[in-house]
Specification:
Blueprint lengths: L1 H16 L5 H17 L10 H10 L11
Helix pairs in contact: 1-2
């Protein structure tokens, strides 16, 4: 998975490098995938998914344990 992401990022970098633009614009374009990844909101996990199990393992509580908390 990391190798696949690395290959995709290298392809993106080479594509951006071919475009005629200012250095500051080039830096912004190269940072764009990282900014978008930080702002992506994934859906809530469903019981049985790896994310649900990871949350239970880390916190000792189910994902929806705080759902009805006021």
């Amino acid at each position: 998975m990391v190798a696949d992401n690395s290959q995709l990022l290298n392809a993106y970098k080479s594509g951006v490098s071919k475009l005629p633009m200012n250095p500051s614009d080039r830096k912004k374009m190269l940072a764009l995938p990282f900014f978008l990844a930080k702002r992506a909101q994934e859906p809530e996990p469903i019981k049985g998914q790896a994310e649900w199990d990871l949350f239970e393992k880390m916190t000792g509580k189910a994902w929806n344990a705080f759902e009805n908390l006021e």
